[in-house]
Amino acid sequence: MPDTPFNTAVWFEIPASDLDASKAFYETALKITMTRDDNGPNPMVMFSSMEDSGVSGHLYPGKPADAGGGNTIHLAVKDKLEDAMERVPGAGGKVVSDIIPIPAGRFVYCEDPDGNSIGLFGN
Protein backbone atom coordinates (compact mmCIF):
# COMPACT_ATOMS: atom_id res chain seq x y z
CA MET A 1 0.00 0.00 0.00
CA PRO A 2 1.48 3.42 -0.89
CA ASP A 3 2.47 5.80 1.91
CA THR A 4 -0.14 8.33 0.78
CA PRO A 5 -3.45 6.65 -0.08
CA PHE A 6 -5.28 7.68 -3.25
CA ASN A 7 -8.58 7.50 -1.37
CA THR A 8 -9.61 8.11 2.22
CA ALA A 9 -10.91 4.54 2.42
CA VAL A 10 -8.19 2.02 1.57
CA TRP A 11 -9.40 -1.33 2.94
CA PHE A 12 -12.58 -3.02 4.09
CA GLU A 13 -13.36 -6.21 5.96
CA ILE A 14 -16.62 -8.15 5.78
CA PRO A 15 -17.25 -10.70 8.56
CA ALA A 16 -18.47 -14.13 7.49
CA SER A 17 -19.82 -17.03 9.52
CA ASP A 18 -18.83 -19.42 6.68
CA LEU A 19 -15.97 -18.24 4.45
CA ASP A 20 -16.67 -20.74 1.67
CA ALA A 21 -20.38 -19.85 1.50
CA SER A 22 -19.62 -16.11 1.56
CA LYS A 23 -16.97 -16.53 -1.13
CA ALA A 24 -19.49 -18.36 -3.31
CA PHE A 25 -22.09 -15.60 -2.76
CA TYR A 26 -19.79 -12.72 -3.72
CA GLU A 27 -18.30 -14.57 -6.69
CA THR A 28 -21.79 -15.35 -8.01
CA ALA A 29 -23.43 -11.98 -7.28
CA LEU A 30 -20.52 -9.91 -8.62
CA LYS A 31 -19.26 -12.32 -11.32
CA ILE A 32 -15.72 -12.15 -9.89
CA THR A 33 -13.04 -14.56 -8.75
CA MET A 34 -11.82 -14.27 -5.16
CA THR A 35 -8.64 -15.74 -3.68
CA ARG A 36 -8.35 -17.54 -0.35
CA ASP A 37 -5.27 -16.60 1.70
CA ASP A 38 -4.28 -18.69 4.72
CA ASN A 39 -0.88 -17.02 5.32
CA GLY A 40 -1.91 -14.65 8.12
CA PRO A 41 -3.16 -15.25 11.64
CA ASN A 42 -6.66 -15.94 10.27
CA PRO A 43 -7.83 -17.27 6.92
CA MET A 44 -9.34 -14.69 4.60
CA VAL A 45 -10.80 -14.45 1.13
CA MET A 46 -9.52 -11.52 -0.92
CA PHE A 47 -11.45 -9.28 -3.30
CA SER A 48 -9.30 -8.58 -6.36
CA SER A 49 -8.11 -5.07 -7.11
CA MET A 50 -6.08 -3.34 -9.74
CA GLU A 51 -2.56 -2.68 -8.51
CA ASP A 52 -2.30 0.66 -6.68
CA SER A 53 -6.01 1.38 -7.26
CA GLY A 54 -6.35 2.32 -3.62
CA VAL A 55 -9.28 0.27 -2.31
CA SER A 56 -9.86 -3.43 -1.76
CA GLY A 57 -10.80 -5.77 1.05
CA HIS A 58 -11.46 -9.27 2.27
CA LEU A 59 -13.88 -11.62 3.96
CA TYR A 60 -12.77 -12.95 7.34
CA PRO A 61 -14.15 -15.41 9.88
CA GLY A 62 -16.13 -13.26 12.26
CA LYS A 63 -19.49 -12.46 13.76
CA PRO A 64 -21.56 -10.31 11.42
CA ALA A 65 -23.69 -7.47 12.79
CA ASP A 66 -27.40 -8.09 13.18
CA ALA A 67 -29.08 -8.43 9.78
CA GLY A 68 -29.21 -5.05 8.08
CA GLY A 69 -27.01 -3.48 10.76
CA GLY A 70 -23.40 -2.46 10.69
CA ASN A 71 -21.65 -0.56 7.93
CA THR A 72 -22.62 -0.75 4.29
CA ILE A 73 -19.84 -1.61 1.85
CA HIS A 74 -20.54 -0.56 -1.76
CA LEU A 75 -19.11 -2.89 -4.40
CA ALA A 76 -18.78 -2.27 -8.14
CA VAL A 77 -20.78 -4.39 -10.55
CA LYS A 78 -19.05 -5.11 -13.87
CA ASP A 79 -22.21 -5.93 -15.83
CA LYS A 80 -25.74 -4.50 -15.68
CA LEU A 81 -26.97 -3.68 -12.19
CA GLU A 82 -30.27 -5.44 -12.92
CA ASP A 83 -28.40 -8.65 -13.79
CA ALA A 84 -26.50 -8.55 -10.49
CA MET A 85 -29.78 -7.96 -8.63
CA GLU A 86 -31.20 -11.12 -10.21
CA ARG A 87 -28.19 -13.18 -9.07
CA VAL A 88 -28.32 -12.06 -5.41
CA PRO A 89 -31.31 -14.18 -4.22
CA GLY A 90 -30.09 -17.30 -6.01
CA ALA A 91 -26.72 -16.90 -4.29
CA GLY A 92 -28.35 -16.70 -0.84
CA GLY A 93 -28.67 -12.94 -0.33
CA LYS A 94 -31.54 -10.44 -0.41
CA VAL A 95 -32.19 -7.31 -2.45
CA VAL A 96 -33.64 -4.81 0.05
CA SER A 97 -34.22 -1.67 -2.04
CA ASP A 98 -35.14 -0.49 -5.47
CA ILE A 99 -32.42 0.97 -7.69
CA ILE A 100 -31.36 4.38 -6.40
CA PRO A 101 -30.08 6.82 -9.04
CA ILE A 102 -27.38 9.32 -8.05
CA PRO A 103 -25.27 11.64 -10.23
CA ALA A 104 -22.34 9.17 -10.32
CA GLY A 105 -24.45 6.16 -11.34
CA ARG A 106 -26.97 3.84 -9.69
CA PHE A 107 -26.92 1.46 -6.73
CA VAL A 108 -29.11 -0.94 -4.81
CA TYR A 109 -28.97 -2.08 -1.18
CA CYS A 110 -28.65 -5.81 -0.53
CA GLU A 111 -27.78 -8.19 2.29
CA ASP A 112 -25.33 -11.05 1.92
CA PRO A 113 -26.17 -14.51 3.38
CA ASP A 114 -24.95 -13.34 6.83
CA GLY A 115 -27.12 -10.21 6.73
CA ASN A 116 -24.19 -7.85 6.08
CA SER A 117 -25.41 -4.67 4.38
CA ILE A 118 -23.87 -4.16 0.94
CA GLY A 119 -24.53 -1.78 -1.90
CA LEU A 120 -24.12 -2.90 -5.49
CA PHE A 121 -23.01 0.05 -7.61
CA GLY A 122 -23.13 0.38 -11.37
CA ASN A 123 -24.03 2.64 -14.25
From TrEMBL:
CDD domains referenced in this protein's UniProt entry, alphabetically: SgaA_N_like
Span of the signal peptide: none
VOC domain residues: 8-123
Residue ranges crossing the lipid bilayer per the database entry: none
Domain of life: Bacteria
Pfam families: Glyoxalase
Annotated SUPFAM superfamilies: Glyoxalase/Bleomycin resistance protein/Dihydroxybiphenyl dioxygenase
PANTHER family named among the record's database cross-references: GLYOXALASE-RELATED (PTHR33993), VOC DOMAIN-CONTAINING PROTEIN (PTHR33993:SF2)
Protein name: VOC family protein
